[in-house]
Structure formats: C-alpha cells, structure tokens
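Why do we care about 3D structure at all? Because function follows from shape, and shape follows, mostly, from sequence. That is the central idea of this module. The next example makes it concrete: a single protein chain, its amino acid sequence, and then its structure expressed as tokens.
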Amino acid sequence: MELGKYDEADEIADSFLNIDSNSSLALYSKSKTCIGIKNYHRSLDYVEKLLKIDPDDPSNWFRKGYVLYYMNQYKEALEIFKKYIEMDNDESSFRYIGLCLEELDNVEEAKKYFNKVLIYYNSLLEEDNEDIDNLLEKAFILGKLGKFDDALTICDKLLKKDPNDIETLFRKAWTLGKSKRINESMKLFDKVLKLKSDDVEILNNIGWILCEAGKFEESLPYFNKSIELNPNYFNTLHSKGYALENLNKYQEALEYYNKVLNVNPSDEIGVKSRERVLKKLK
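And the structure:
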C-alpha cells in the first residue's frame, strides 16, 4: 500500500474511534496501518487494546505474535504463537513458530515446523495448484528448508504468467541469493528496484543478501538508501551496523546498534550485537 493510502486508511480508522474508542475494526485498521509504515511499537499498542476488549479472540493473539516477531522479540513472540495454536489450530501459523525458532538458533526444531507448513500448503495446492499466494508461500518455505531448486521452479512458473510481478521477482532473487548465486540474484534485484525503488524492506534484504555473500562494502548503499527513506527502521539500522562491524569499523557499528536500541529497546538481535561489538572494542 502506498503511503497516501496508509494516511487515508488511518484517517478513516480515526473517524471510527472518535465515535467508538473500542471499535475492534478501527483498532485493527490502526494496527495494520502502523505495520505498513514499520511503526511496530504503535501497532502493538493497538493490539494490546484489542486484547483487553476481547482476550478470547485467537486472531488478536496472532496479531500480537506477528508484531512481536517483527519487533525482533522472538522469545515472547514464540510463546504467543504457541498460545494462538492452542486456541485455533491454524497450520499456516507454524510458519512463524519456525521463523522464531530459526532466529533463536534452534534450526533443527525450526525445520520441523517448516515441514509442517510445507505439508499444509501442498494440501491447499492439491485443491488449486494455480493459487499465486499459496505458491509463493510454498516457495518461501522451500527456501527455508534449503530446497532452492524446487523454490526456483515455482518462481519460474509464476514469472511465465507475469514476468513483472514484484513479489515473485523478489522471491526468486532472494532464493538465488540464499543459494549463493549472487550475480544472478543481483541482476534480478536490479529489476525489482526498477519496479519499486522506495521499499525499505526490499533495500534492506538486498543489502543483507550481499552481507551473507561477504560483500559488506557493496551492501552499504542499499542500507543507506533504506535509512534515508525511514531513519527509524531498526532492521536496516542493525544491518548497517553488522556490515560496518564486518568491515572492522567497530565504533561506527556500535553507533548503529545503539540507534537500534534507541528505537527498539527490546530488540533481541540488537542487544546481542551491541554486546558482541563492545567486546571487540575492549
């Protein structure tokens, strides 16, 4: 959604809240709008209000887990998603349990959940093997399981139908990068940026793929552009700190890790990274 659209949605939600401050629909809309502009703390405030209104609604617990995951608070998010599963056996949410476990370095346990999600999407695709969203989600999970060729096959199938679909182009570029085919990945990312040059998350992901390939200096322009668009997007602030740290620029890296924690004090990755670079500065 474009920034103007978020502003419009925000204004509509505000008008509903002026009439009824406990409007679940308006609170959900506000939360979703905040996620769109990467203001996760504000989004969490609205989700907490939703939970006070209706703590028995499983979807409110899912929203809280989702926001906490994107705030890099993986331990708490994991517990919330497990609670959500107990309330509503939504197999698609195993995706987020797997992602949390992966971030907590429990890779083998994460794979068990990714395999569960894969079975779930295979069952959906048996009913409709042309569903684009389910195919893209399956490609993502295959990538998480290291089955890159299978993921790329899905992306190529989708790109035959729509060669300029941004989500599919991004998924293929990301998969190529993860499979160490960095030159092919960057060519495709260039195409993505021609179609959408102002997405902070895409820019951060491109820089991160370069970092994973050991191309730390080359990653910096992408992080700089992302930060220019949103100076408070803590994932990019961390990514730039990580690149600087690997370029042995420890003091500069520390400055960015401090910025992460100023914006997002409970960021588990930020805390660990700051502790790590402080040891290197001693």
